[in-house]
């Protein structure tokens, strides 16, 4: 009982500390900028903020409003569009990170369930985010990819979706990304088929590149000064970690893995390391209703529990680390932080959805993004092309079922519309 009290007390202190630290990070962007406040009312040398106005914009709002900040040519921006777990929750989608580069390229690393609406809430035209890289084919890392693909035409994507995922390496072909994506296309055959001739369906093309997941330092993408390599992970079979090299910087991203020697060897001192970090064994027992053996197995043989995340970061010393893939709440974070920071004292953020990082060679700024909760599709950036050579026509008897009483009303809608738009459409 005493022990429990002590744990709760320590947890509270850590939680308060974490909040204070977080607040500090949010307020000043961790770049030493002025907080925009009078530092001391009485001090003779008090600093007075400038740039504030009753009618103008605030000089620093401390958060990131998507679409309002230009990316410098040498800058990288990463946004957590899913920091969570295969256990669905409103607060955290499953694994998904958007990486935006100052050269205009954008990449999505993993697209777990729930992540798509986070991506849409950033208001980025879909033609700009046509490249998706999958570390492995668990639902919490690719579950929203079918929806992201199928929703293309309805959300003004005009380009084929490009997908990179594991295959080969001795694994069963039917378990590979090509087979999975072929089955996605087959699953939605009715939907894609019945849209023919009515909307621009060019984005129903999918270009799948299967990479050999077993290779070490395998270059799977090289375009426009950006290189993406894979190293194997230890997570059943077929899982990898990604290394993105651009502009003299390296970003490392683990999907799921236990501490592995490839990560330790190839991510030494990288600029930005995003790595899975599960809850502690006791938290898994308490929060997930896991048995003791289940908790130990999941957290040390399939995934990296918080202490193992800390150990991996201590072994590799990235310039900035990000822990994700756990339910990040006020009562779990202190325990996770305690486990991580018992072995690692470097800079680390504990990801939540919409955490955003601006990364340059000079350092990393961490903030929270303020997404648009009421997003609409962004407008098309290419002229819509509707292929009418083989349009879908529903069975005649279905259309003949139109309620006769409603026909004068629909004809009136056409009349009113034509009057307003100067058109001459007829209802058939
Ligand atoms: Zn997994
Ligand atoms: Zn996972």
Could you characterize what this model shows?
- It is a single chain.
- This protein has 428 residues and is of the alpha/beta class.
- It has 2 domains: 63-368, 4-Layer Sandwich (Metallo-beta-lactamase, Chain A), CATH 3.60.15; 396-428, no CATH class.
- Helices cover 29% and strands 20% of the residues.
- The strands form 2 sheets. It has an 8-stranded mixed beta sheet with strand order 6-5-4-3-2-1-14-15. The protein has a 7-stranded mixed beta sheet with strand order 7-8-9-10-11-12-13.
- α1 crosses α11 (333-341), α8 packs across α9 (292-302) and α10 packs parallel to α11 (333-341).
- The longest helix has 27 residues, at 2-28.
- The radius of gyration is 25 Å and the shape is globular.
- The model is unreliable at 1-11 and 21-41 (pLDDT under 50).
Strand order of the largest sheet: 6-5-4-3-2-1-14-15
N-end to C-end Cα span: 77 Å
Please tell me what the overall shape is: globular
The CATH superfamily label of the largest domain reads Ribonuclease Z/Hydroxyacylglutathione hydrolase-like
Unique ligands: zinc ion
Spell out the helices and strands N to C: HEEEHEHHEHHEEEEEHEHHHEHEEEHH
CATH architecture of the largest domain: 4-Layer Sandwich
**Helix share, percent:** 25-40%
- Percent in strands: 15-25%
Rg result: 25 Å
| Highest-level CATH class of the largest domain | Alpha Beta
How many separate domains make up the residues? 2
| Number of helical elements | 13
Total beta strand runs: 15
Instruction: Show unreliable segments.
Output: 1-11, 21-41
Q: What is the overall pLDDT average?
A: 91
Q: Tell me about the largest β-sheet.
A: 8 strands, mixed
Structural class: alpha/beta
């Amino acid at each position: 009982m005493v022990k429990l009290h002590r744990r709760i007390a320590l947890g509270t202190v850590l939680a308060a500390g974490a909040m204070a630290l977080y607040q500090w990070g949010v307020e000043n962007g961790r770049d030493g900028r002025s907080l925009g406040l009078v530092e001391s009312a009485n001090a003779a040398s008090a600093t007075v903020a400038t740039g504030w106005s009753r009618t103008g914009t605030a000089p620093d709002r401390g958060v990131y409003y998507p679409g309002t900040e230009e990316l410098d040519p040498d800058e990288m921006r990463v946004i957590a569009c899913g920091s969570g777990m295969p256990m669905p929750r409103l607060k955290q989608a499953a694994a998904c990170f958007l990486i935006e580069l100052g050269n205009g390229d954008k990449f999505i690393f993993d697209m777990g369930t729930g992540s798509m609406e986070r991506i849409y809430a950033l208001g980025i035209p879909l033609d700009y985010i046509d490249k998706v890289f999958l570390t492995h084919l668990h639902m919490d890392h690719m579950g929203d990819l079918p929806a992201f693909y199928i929703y293309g035409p309805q959300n003004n994507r005009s380009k084929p979706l490009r997908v990179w995922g594991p295959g080969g390496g001795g694994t069963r072909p039917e378990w590979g990304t090509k087979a999975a994506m072929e089955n996605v296309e087959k699953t939605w055959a009715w939907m894609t088929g019945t849209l023919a001739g009515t909307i621009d369906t060019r984005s129903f093309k999918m270009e799948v590149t299967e990479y050999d997941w077993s290779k070490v330092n395998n270059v799977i993408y090289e375009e426009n000064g950006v290189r993406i390599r894979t190293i194997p992970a230890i997570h059943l079979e077929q899982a990898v970690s990604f290394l993105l090299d651009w502009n003299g910087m390296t970003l490392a991203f683990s999907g799921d893995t236990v501490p592995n020697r490839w990560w330790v060897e190839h991510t030494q001192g990288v600029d930005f390391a995003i790595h899975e970090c599960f809850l502690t064994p006791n938290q898994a027992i308490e929060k997930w209703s896991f048995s003791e053996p289940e908790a130990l197995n999941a957290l040390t043989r399939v995934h990296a529990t918080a202490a193992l995340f800390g150990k991996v970061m201590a072994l590799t010393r990235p310039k900035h680390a990000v822990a994700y893939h756990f339910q990040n709440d006020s009562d779990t974070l202190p325990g996770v932080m305690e486990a991580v920071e018992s072995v690692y004292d470097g800079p680390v953020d504990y990801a939540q959805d919409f955490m955003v990082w601006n990364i340059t060679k000079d350092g990393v700024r961490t903030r929270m993004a303020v997404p648009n909760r009421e997003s609409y599709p962004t407008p098309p950036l290419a002229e819509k092309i509707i292929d009418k050579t083989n349009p879908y026509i529903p069975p005649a008897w279905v259309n003949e079922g139109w309620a006769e009483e409603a026909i004068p009303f629909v004809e009136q809608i056409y009349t009113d519309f034509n009057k307003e738009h100067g058109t001459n459409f007829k209802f058939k």
